[in-house]
Design a protein that fits this description.
This protein is 49% helix and 16% strand. The protein is of the alpha/beta class.
Length: 299
């Protein structure tokens, strides 16, 4: 694709090369930012591969990612279509997320039961002002499943930061627990302190940023204070004409100091569930080949 491809296939090749180079740079701290929707799909398995294979040092994501990780680990979602009758689906007890069907009982009620139990145990241990990182680690430990990206994150020591943790079903459960325990709160400043510590301890930094929103912004925001990202790979379907963060190209981030002018960077216009498996497969295959060649006896 790099030599014969055109349009976005060339950008896909560039993204693959940048991700491989970023992951081969031992001085680079690797950020992964993504929205919630892809966690509701089989792409969650690709995210798990990224974490499990050591291709991620820090995750910044949205609250809904926690919702779907809990729900999909403990229950099932189903395939549907974008054209289904939403009135009929609602009456039958299903939420529709694009072409994915989420049974009502497998979402809100299930998450409530699990989260109230998790928060209760944390509170009984004297943890009444956790950061989102601490909440995510507790969820991962509680799920204790190799099908959970939160499980793998806490197992591999990868911090998961959720700047907008109240914006989701898990966030609603934090509010509900706080209504019953008025001294309970989320330490959002602690999360920001953690990000700043990670960034300023890094010699270099790079980011794979899927989609946009608050996850994208926080991965970029803190890196501007150390001179910007050294590697940046955006995957998005949004356009820049409306000034949205989701559509803002990687070159725009250079003007804000969030990405270095000489950084290895690419803006890949593609739907993430289609291209992310290709990118991760490329990086892992190439790394394994490189490792195997280093292990060959000389002479």
């Amino acid at each position: 694709m790099g030599t014969g491809g055109g349009f976005q296939s060339r950008n896909l090749a560039d993204a693959a090369e940048i991700l491989y180079t970023m992951n081969s740079d031992r001085a680079c701290t690797k950020f992964l930012a993504f929205p919630a929707a892809i966690v509701a799909t089989g792409t969650r398995g690709v995210l798990i591969d990224l974490i499990g294979e050591g291709l991620v040092d820090v995750i910044v994501t949205a609250s809904g990612s926690l919702d779907h990780d809990i729900s999909r680990t403990l229950s099932d979602y189903y395939q549907g279509s974008f054209e289904m009758d939403d009135v009929a689906l609602s009456k039958a007890g299903y939420h529709r997320l694009g072409n994915i069907l989420v049974p009502l009982e497998n979402y809100g009620p299930l998450i409530e039961r699990r989260m109230q139990s998790i928060l209760g145990r944390m509170y009984s241990r004297g943890i009444n002002a956790p950061t989102s990182e601490q909440v995510c680690a507790e969820i991962g430990k509680d799920l204790n499943s190799k099908n959970s990206f939160l499980y793998w994150a806490q197992r591999k020591g990868v911090p998961v930061i959720v700047p907008g943790i109240m914006d989701g079903s898990v966030g609603s459960q934090l509010w509900l627990f706080g209504e019953k325990h008025h001294d309970f709160k989320i330490d959002v400043i602690g999360d920001q302190r953690r990000l700043s510590e990670i960034v300023f301890a890094s010699k270099k930094s790079g980011a794979l940023i899927i989609g946009g929103g608050i996850s994208k912004h926080h991965a970029l925001w803190w890196n501007q204070f150390k001179g910007g990202l050294d590697y940046a790979c955006y995957i998005t379907t949004a356009l820049e004409y409306d000034g949205s963060l989701s559509g803002a190209q990687v070159r725009e981030a250079v003007s804000w100091g969030k990405v270095k002018a000489k950084a290895k960077k690419v803006n890949l216009y593609a739907e993430a569930t289609t291209v992310l498996p290709l990118l991760v497969s490329y990086v892992l295959t190439r790394k394994r080949k490189s490792s195997a060649q280093r292990e060959l006896p000389s002479g």
